[in-house]
Each structure stands twice: as structure tokens, then as C-alpha cells.
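Quick one: structure for this chain?
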Amino acid sequence: MDFKTLRTYNVSHMRDISPILRSLGLLDSEIKTYLAALELGPSTVIQLTGKTNISRQASYTAIEALIERGLMSSVEKGKKTLYASESPERLVAFAEAKMRNMESTLKDIKTVADDLHLLRKGEKPAVKMFEGKEGLHAMLQDIIDSGVETFDELANEDAVSSVFSDEDLKPYKAKFDEAGIKARFMSRAKQQEPIRKKAVRQYINRKDIDFNGDILIWDSKVAFLTFRGKMISVLIESKDIADTVRSLYQLAWDCDKK
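Got it. Here's what it folds into:
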């Protein structure tokens, strides 16, 4: 086996290192150009394009990127410009430098992780609006689907009863019981006949307090509903807002028990 045959055999049996080079951030055109220049030695762009089968413009772009990374160099020979790949050791140095940069970046990301969490919590709340009975149906079903163990509600039961019959709410009562979901209920009602008989409840008996709406609080969500005139429901998904309204609810609950 002569030298040329041996060299051809070695190249053809060399494992594909393209995935490794790609993991270092090199584009396919850059990989082809680097390997072609490594195999051919100092070459013109025309020679490299003949080896890589990529356009001349793409070759120039790849060569420029490789030179910036220190993986290729150019030399003037007469009127020609020849391009050559740096030694594989330079590639190793490039990979090591990239790894050090990645390690540094990883440390930086870890240090700002808490700040990123704060940013995530501060995202614009998701808001949905419903008209008609569909609003309350959507809220109650969401409570069931959320998997919470309990939720808070402030409501005028007389206003609710004027819009929703027992038959309207019966399916949800059964689902709440089946899922074991408990309610803490503050009610403004003249007749004081609770809609949800199993709820832990307090009645608001002050004559100076009257309203015709409903507030539901569960998980990271708050729903506001009005039953007078055109029924409108607004669902806000925000942990901060839910925690704030829940705190106000707790204050009202504790005050009413005194």
C-alpha cells in the first residue's frame, strides 16, 4: 500500500467529527471549510470551494468567521491569497476557551436566577373577561380543574340566586363534594339560606354594607363577577394579586368573627 493509498484510507476511515465541531458553535459551511483546508493545506478559495461544494461567497464568509476564531489564517503568495487551517491543537485551545466562557456564563446565570424568578412573578397578569352565565360556569369549573383543596368566596347570595337556579349550580356542588373541595364563604343575604350548605361561612349582617357581586379566590387566581344588569365576569391570574386579595379576605374574616 503506497502513501497516497494509505492517506486516502485513513481519511475515509476517520470518524465524523462534524457533530463535535457543531457543538462548538461552528456552522456547517465553517466545518466543511475548516476540514477541507486542513486536508488540502494552504489553498485558494477556488480550491476550497471545489472541495466543499459550497459557493464562493459562503466560503469567504466561513473563512472570515474561522479567522476570527483563530482556527484559520491567510498568507499572500504572489498575487494569490492562500488560506490554511490552524493545527488541531488550536482547535483544542478554542474548545477549552469556549468551555471556560460557558462555565463563567453558567455561574453568572446562577447568580441572577433569583432575579429572573422575580421578573417572572412580575409578568403582566393574564386577564379574561366573560359575559353572561358562562362566566361563573367557567370560574367554578376552573376551581375544580385546579386541584385546590379550598377556595374563598365573598358573595351576595340573593344576587346569585336571582340569576342562577339550584339546577344551574347542582352539578358543581356534586363535583366539589366528589373532589373534597371546601369553601370559606362570606355572604350578604337577606334570606340567609346558604347556596352551599357544606361551606364554612359567615354572614354579613351590617346594613351599611351592600353589593351585588361576587369575588372568588383560589390558587393564583381571582374572579370578580357582577349580577346586576349585564352580567360580567373578570378572571385575573396573578399570584401577587391573588395573595393580596386573599389577605384582605382573611382580615375581613377575622374581624367578622370578633
